[in-house]
Each structure stands twice: as C-alpha cells, then as structure tokens.
Amino acid sequence: MKPTLLLIALSAAACAAPVYRLEPVTDAVRWVQGAAVLADSSAGISATISYLGHTPDGITFDVRLVNGTGEVVRVEPSLIWYYTYTTEPDSTDSGVRGTRWALDPEEQILQLDRALQREEAARTTTVLLDATLDLASTDNGIERTNRLLERQETARRFDAGISDLATRRDAWSRFALRRTDLDPDASVDGILHVPVAPDARYLRLYLPVGDATLRFDFRQTKTSSWR
After folding, report:
1. Is pTM beyond 0.90 here?
2. 69-108 pLDDT, tens digit each
3. Shortest CA distance to 202 belongs to which of 180, 223, 185, 217?
C-alpha cells in the first residue's frame, strides 16, 4: 500500500501545472507596484495596459482608455483580440500562429444570470419535493433525522453554488472593462480577460477604439512549478 500511495503522490507532483508570465517586449515601460505599465496612443485615443496574471482559463490585464478625439467613441471589449507567435512578431520568420478574442463581459454576465436562475430553480424544486415526501413518509425517527441531515447538506451545496455564481457575476459587473460610450476627454478603466495560449511565445494584443487600433507586444515565459 505504501509504494502505491507514494506513486500517487509523485504522480500528482509531476502533474503540477507550469507557471506562465507575460513580459513586455519593449523597454519603454513604467513600473507600478510590480506591474509593467505599457502605453500607446493613436487617432486621439490613449491607452495604458498592465499584465496582472494567468489563471487556468485566461490572462488578465488592467486597461485604461482616454478619449481625446472630441467625439463620443464606443469601447467594445468583445472586439479586442491578440495574435500568437512562436518567434518575435516583427522577425523575418515570424507568422501568426493563432488568434484569440477577449471574453465579452456582457455575455459572461448573461451566462451567469442563466446559471443562477437554473440553480435557484433546482433548489426550490428540491425543497418542494422533500416537503412532499415528508408528508407521505412513514419513516421512524432515526430515518427522519438522517433524511433531515441529507437535506441540510443538499441545501448547503446549493447555497455554496449560488454564492459562487453570484460572486463571479458581481466581479464581472463591477471590475471588468465593459461596453462603454466614452465621452470626449473622459476615461474608463477595467479588467480585460482573454483566453490562454499555452504554446505561444509572443502575443500581440490589439485594442480597437474609434478610428484607433492600439497595439501591445508581450513575451510569454513558462517555468516549472518546482524550479
């Protein structure tokens, strides 16, 4: 038994995911609290962006946009994208290896609202079904107690799931960079989420706003969790 447990432990350790980071390709950055802030401007639109980190499902950035065009422009996160490369984007042998589009906060919130409705409906149905079974039950005291404990555990799981969905919805609603009609001289900031690209060595991120398309280049590094 002990060798088997050791093998399982070693296998779990070997499966630890690598650690990913994004580094600016350019040296023209400003460091703020450990984050490299890049800037770009075009056609009256100015932007700053800093890499926040990787998650199992995505890459997050902190973005700030300023409208200096004199007109209202729309910020549409779902139109933001990046290309992936295996070599530096401007090298002679570079070529686009893939395209990833930013996650749409409005769609994410909609999906979470739907999930919340389904979870709450399932909880209500389960409570009503349990109450009906109680009325028809001829179980003794011990069986009733066991069923009560099971119902409490089921309710706890439902409540935990609903709480998790509500927390995620609140985060998307409050902190994400969302669709915004930006007035002249106004600014907007928020968190941008894009899908991961584990095999990419370089990423070129594009932010289209108004007549401008701003560009930011990053190098992706991968290190072992055990290094």
Report:
1. no
2. 999 999 999 999 999 998 888 776 667 788 999 999 999 9
3. 217
Asked if 23 contacts 218 with a C-beta cutoff of 8 angstroms, the reply is yes
Whole-angstrom distance, CA of residue 150 vs CA of residue 89: 58
Residue 204 token pair: 């070129």
* Dist. CA 176–CA 61, nearest whole Å: 10
Weakly modelled stretches of the chain, pLDDT under 70 = 1-15, 92-94, 130-145, 147-148, 227
Residue 176: other Cβ atoms inside 10 A? 22
Residue type, position 205, single letter: L
Q: What is the CATH number of domain 17-105+176-223?
A: 2.60.40
Task: Report the distance separating Cα 71 and Cα 94, nearest Å.
Answer: 37
**What is the spatial distance between Cα 165 and Cα 209, in angstroms, rounded to a whole number?**
31
Residue 66 CA, distance from chain mean position = 23
What are the tokens at 22?
């994004």
Give the tens place of pLDDT for each residue, 172-188: 999 999 999 999 999 99
Q: What is the largest CA-CA distance in the chain?
A: 80
CB within 8 A of 2, min separation 6: which ones? none
Specify the pairing of strand 187-195 against strand 81-85.
Answer: unpaired
